[in-house]
Sequence to fold (585 residues):
Amino acid sequence: MVGQRGWSYRGVVVLFLAPSLIPLLLFTVGPMVAAAGLSLVRWNLLKPPEFIGLDNYVRLVGDANFRAAVINTIAYVAGYLPLVFVGGMLIALALNERLRGLAIFRTAYFLPVVTSWVVVALMWRWLLDPGAGVVNHVLGLVGIDGPGWYNDPVWAMPSVIIASAWKDLGFVMVILLAGLQSIPDEYYEAASVDGAGRWTRFRHITLPLLTPSLFFVLVISLINNLQVFDQVWVMTRGGPAGATSVVVEQIVTNAFSYGQMGYAAAMSWLFFVVLLGITMVQFRLQRRWVTYG
Amino acid sequence: MVELVRANSLAGTGTRKVRWGRLVSRTVIYAALTAGGLAMIFPFLWMLSTSFQSAGALLVPPPQLIPSPIELGNYAEIASAFPLWRFLANSLGVAAVATVLQVATSAMAGYAFARLRFRGRDALFLLYIATLMVPLQVTILPLFVEMKYLGLVDSYGALVLPAIASAFGTFLLRQAFLGLPRELEEAAFMDGAGHLTVFRRIVLPLAMPAIATLAVFSFVASWNSFLWPLIIVNSPDLMTLPVGLSNLQGRYATAWNLLMAGSTVAVVPILIVYVIGQKYVIRGVTLSGLKG
Fold:
């Protein structure tokens, strides 16, 4: 099949593909490969790069700041995931009752998801302001002396977790709701005829059939949130005293504040391998469980 | 028949119990959802309210939801100290350009992968999928170096170039095109139309829902993107809203009325997009698995 007016078939293929393929090679694939090379040099962008082999990786192993950032990142995810999952699940179940007027709630719950992280972080900094913030004021009304939140090394990470969970509830909810709505009504009707109660139906129909969605959103949330950065940068800059320093924040700080491009690249490459491992596991299982419409 | 009716009326007490149960559970659900919904909306209302408070009123407890007096000068004040409207224009411009380019390049590549036959097609498509797994912070350092050598650090070009192509968009539109019936296209080819014509006249119009999904998603993603603009742009004239806001915060650490005025400006456009294209926003975000 020859294209119109003298376009050869090959020409048509190039015409359709090049506008996407060339930028993708230049600005994604190229840098991705280059990152591996960059991790093998010492380079502050001013002097020429110096090849140092695996020294960056060796240094990484003994870097107490990086280790702390890894631990903080895991702590963040460990606090965040249960909150969004339990919250998102409860809201999804409630919205799945198909009652009148529930669409407006879905709109409300999803609103933070589309809001910029910087705005959300600023909002929550203000809500959690230790002196004049609403949250501590309300706590004060019931006789609780509110903590210093993001100014307090102990409460800084919980502050970030609260803001993050608030923002992402709607994301988890929407995916779980789609999963719930794909469960055929007949199953529930049949179970009711057999005398199954609410809890039994949940336990033996909803939960098993929702596993693919739960798994999907778990892996996606895990991958997205190991990369936590925006909210940390705006709310705490990794402080106070490194209490909320996370992996991506360390990468950015090392590269652009300390001028250690190679060292930061080693961090990012190591991090990539971890994320890739998680993605691979997901991909294998997802093929079996999740189908895109 | 009569037997049945009698049986039903006998069971009436049971039904009433079920009805009561349903009423209670409905009430509980509505109450819980309303409480949760308020928790979602309140921070936005608080932001809006604070943006109309005077600096002095903020420091006097208790906090007030309705500002008194209403201070309208915060927006002007912050716009005079910072190029707030420039931030807004930059964000809108970059998001619009990125969206148009991404939709165009993704639709064309999607068509190539869905409808054209060429050697290495499947391997190339796999490469596209593979790039979806690469987190931004891996490519961002070499990308910065690349921009430095291209002389593009601190330029609009650097903001837009990495957003020209979208592997996710290509994937999304390829799937959509694969789902279209081929009869119309075959008829058009019979009539002597070429691929360009078929693409523009038949495939694109039929795939409008998918294209709208991608467009809205690209816009929201670009509007909210923070890390890349943060490191690649330094001059205030080139900053997008998120970066500008985070800079503002560095200067007005506790001038919450000003910071919330800036935040409100950053929220309004995305709110409009969300309200108009809610269906597409939710679909795009859900499909990509990316957060806004």
In short: Chain A touches chain B through 97 residues (CB under 8 Å). The beta strands of chain A are 41-42, 50-51. Chain A has one domain: 39-289. The two ends of chain A are 31 Å apart (CA to CA).
